[in-house]
Specification:
By secondary structure, the protein is of the alpha/beta class. It is built from twelve helices and seven strands. It has helices spanning 8-22, 65-76, 95-99, 126-133, 140-155, 157-165, 184-196, 230-238, 256-263, 281-295, 306-316, 321-343; strands at residues 25-30, 40-46, 49-57, 85-91, 202-210, 218-221, 268-276.
């Protein structure tokens, strides 16, 4: 297993070197921010059969890009036959989040809650937890946690989870913020898909994430509302069932998968979000709360405090070699299974 990068620049350089060695075409687009002009959204493309495409996304939530980058670098080291589906890697969709060790981008927008048409669905329950998720002072971190648990017990855990995580458009400084417009990162991804995957008849998208679920445990999530046969696809391709029931009580707003589907309306799309578990939900939320609190108060251009970086990396990319090895192995195996499935389709 290759070593994990510990900063954005190292991860990007390693990915680009691996793509060049593998003979992939590289495309890069600057995503500047006042905190850093050296932020790029990078693509690596191996064009083979234009009608069948395998897409891998990393770093939709910036901090999660370190694990995703390691998976992509591992896969670029595979031998690639002359024939087969076209392969497209999207490295660090949220480069700002990778650079500054945060989940959201430089506008505090969650890129997997950002793409929507029309007004956001009301989510009044989020306001019940905003004081916990975005504390007003460091002294309130502990007391607000207890109040949030009490509110969740009264509301019910399922409804509380929906209120917190499904996306909100009313608290711009809070977590899971949807933004008031489609972000440049999403627009760039759509442009690339439109220009380089427009001929695709079938596309499989593997969206790699970390942080949710039990330690080293994999979960596979699909969009049953948009892909009714998703369970059959996952079982046939990966030899297991998706991890959420078909009657899931809520659907996140502004999903990245919806942006992909809108971009390629004539393409049969299989979207699978691969989530690799790390720390407990409370520990992960504590890291997000600390990071968000500091980010909104940091002097422009300053480095993140060491304690913030450590908390975020531990929540989304623990240093444990066994965790890192398991995550790369799982990510690479799902990609290889999906590639075999696409290659087996009749031409």
């Amino acid at each position: 297993m290759k070593a994990f990068a510990e900063n954005y620049e190292e991860a990007r350089e390693t990915f680009l070197a691996a793509a060049e060695t593998a003979g992939f075409r590289q495309l890069r687009f600057r995503v500047p921010h006042e905190d850093s002009s050296e932020l790029f959204l990078d693509f690596a493309l191996l064009r083979r059969d234009p009608k069948r495409v395998l897409l891998h996304l990393s770093g939709v939530h910036g901090i999660e890009g370190f694990a995703g980058s390691a998976v992509q670098t591992e896969l670029l080291g595979d031998s690639h036959a002359e024939e087969g589906p076209s392969l497209l890697f999207v490295h660090g969709l949220n480069p700002y989040g990778m650079k500054f060790y945060r989940r959201a981008n430089g506008q505090n927008v969650d890129l997997n809650r950002n793409f929507r048409k029309g007004a956001a669905r009301p989510n009044p329950d989020y306001a019940l937890f905003d004081g916990y998720l975005n504390p007003a002072s460091l002294n309130s971190f502990r007391s607000d946690r207890y109040r949030a648990i009490w509110k969740a017990l009264r509301l019910g855990w399922a409804r509380a989870a929906k209120g917190i995580a499904s996306g909100q458009a009313t608290h711009p400084k809070g977590l899971f913020y949807m933004g008031d417009r489609v972000q440049r990162e999403i627009q760039l991804l759509q442009d690339i898909l439109r220009h380089h995957c427009g001929q695709a008849e079938e596309l499989t998208a593997l969206d790699f994430h970390t942080g949710l679920g039990r330690y080293k445990q994999e979960q596979l999530f699909v969009d049953f509302d948009a892909e009714p046969n998703a369970e059959t696809y996952v079982r046939e391709t990966f030899g297991r069932a998706p991890d959420q029931p078909k009657d899931l009580t809520y659907i996140a707003q502004g999903r990245l998968s919806d942006a992909i589907r809108e971009t390629l309306p004539q393409t049969k799309i299989h979207y699978v979000l691969q989530e690799m578990g790390a720390r407990s939900q409370l520990k992960t939320l504590d890291a997000l709360r600390l990071e968000n609190y500091e980010w909104h108060r940091r002097p422009a251009g300053s480095d993140r405090p060491v304690e913030v970086v450590r908390a975020m990396m531990d929540a989304f990319c623990p240093e444990d070699p066994s965790w890192r090895g398991a995550i790369v192995a799982a990510g690479a195996e799902r990609w290889r299974q999906a590639e075999r499935a696409l290659a087996a389709l009749p031409r």
